[in-house]
Recover the amino acids of this structure.
């Protein structure tokens, strides 16, 4: 009986040690990806994309800071587009606080003739109030090879020189939201 208990505890201990090492290696990989993102300024080839303007001019290139939201729709285009409305309140909040930040929404579509009608229909249905760019050629990803493919790295705050300051989606993650708002409010003082 004591042997069985010892074996169970040994297996449990080894499992915990393995899980801890995986967590540690994920953290190290994440730190490495963030270091890579911060090592090279983000290029914004907006002139190579299709601009879809709205009455709300949320895209201002001359802001001191910019939040870039890149949506590459690798999994389900319409699924990811349907959540874009969540940015309406965030843009409004930043504008009300007079933060010197502009928003650049870039949406990658593979088949413009097919996806354009769907995209514009979804944006209208969800009442997305912000201007955005449609990247039909994949140029954003091509010129920014240092940005990881995972969508958790596809929202970031840039300084005036397009250097990455913060990474993460403040709409999805409250802790990231706190970081963004804290940083922007400190800059506003």
């Amino acid at each position: 009986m004591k042997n069985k208990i010892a074996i169970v505890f040994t297996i449990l201990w080894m499992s915990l040690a393995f899980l801890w090492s995986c967590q540690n290696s994920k953290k190290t990989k994440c730190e490495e990806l963030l270091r890579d993102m911060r090592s090279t300024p983000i290029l914004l080839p907006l002139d190579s994309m299709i601009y879809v303007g709205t009455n709300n001019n949320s895209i201002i290139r001359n802001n001191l800071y910019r939040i870039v939201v890149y949506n590459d729709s690798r999994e389900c285009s319409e699924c990811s587009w349907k959540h874009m409305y969540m940015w309406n309140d965030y843009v409004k909040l930043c504008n009300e606080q007079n933060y010197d930040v502009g928003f650049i929404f870039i949406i990658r579509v593979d088949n413009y003739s097919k996806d354009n009608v769907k995209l514009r229909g979804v944006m209208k249905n969800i009442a997305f109030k912000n201007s955005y760019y449609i990247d039909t050629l994949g140029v954003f990803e091509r010129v920014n090879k240092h940005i990881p493919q995972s969508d958790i790295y596809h929202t970031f705050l840039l300084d005036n020189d397009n250097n990455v300051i913060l990474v993460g989606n403040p709409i999805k993650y409250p802790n990231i939201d706190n970081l963004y708002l804290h940083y922007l409010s400190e800059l506003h003082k």
Observations:
- The first helix runs from residue 2 to 39.
- Helices lie at 2-39, 77-81, 87-96, 112-125, 139-143, 174-188.
